[in-house]
Design brief:
Helix content is 17%, strand content 35%. With 172 residues, the protein is of the alpha+beta class. It has a 7-stranded mixed sheet. β8 and β9 (168-169) form a beta hairpin. α1 packs across α2 (124-139).
């Protein structure tokens, strides 16, 4: 895994939420960690994909080691760093020897410069809770058409392309 330029260490709190009205929401991950805090803005698809990946990976892991049997090589010096950026990509890694996940977010480089990167470490329980919260946040948006899966805006009749334009969903 590449070295992160902003290493926040082990998280004490990580959350997923959305800001704004359905159809115009912005999604974010927020981290409180040893090295500071971070807010990473992302697309709904990125948040949903992260949650689904976690739900697929978590059941395949070996049993949790007994509490207190792990060491913490991922700590960083306490700090007051505060980061905020929009993620172009997310990556996830699992360190089996320490039973922790690494979550790395990278933004698009501005003006050809280096991209900002952030890495935090979290337990499997924290990641399982994040996956549930992220899926709930994503599901709280606009309803989807059962035929074409397109988002349906409130107060606007949906003309479904899979219904050849003949089936209109009722206005909610």
């Amino acid at each position: 895994m590449p070295r992160a330029r902003n290493e926040l260490g082990v998280v004490s709190r990580l959350t997923a939420d959305a800001v704004g009205e359905p159809g115009h929401r912005r999604f974010r991950l927020r981290f409180d960690a040893q090295g500071g805090t971070a807010t990473v803005w992302l697309e709904k698809d990125q948040l949903s994909s992260l949650a689904l990946a976690l739900q697929q990976v978590l059941p395949t892991l070996p049993p949790e080691p007994p509490a207190g049997s792990q060491t913490d090589p991922f700590s960083v010096a306490p700090g007051a760093m505060a980061l905020e950026f929009t993620a172009e990509s997310l990556s996830l890694d699992y360190e089996e020897g320490h039973d922790v996940f690494a979550l790395m977010a990278r933004d698009a480089p501005a003006g050809g410069g280096e991209s900002a990167t952030l890495r935090v470490w979290a337990t499997r329980r924290q990641m399982a809770a994040l996956a549930e919260e992220a899926l709930a946040v994503c599901a709280a948006g606009r309803p989807h058409c059962p035929l074409c899966d397109a988002s349906i805006d409130a107060g606007v009749a949906h003309v479904c392309p899979r219904g050849n334009g003949h089936r209109k969903e009722p206005v909610a």
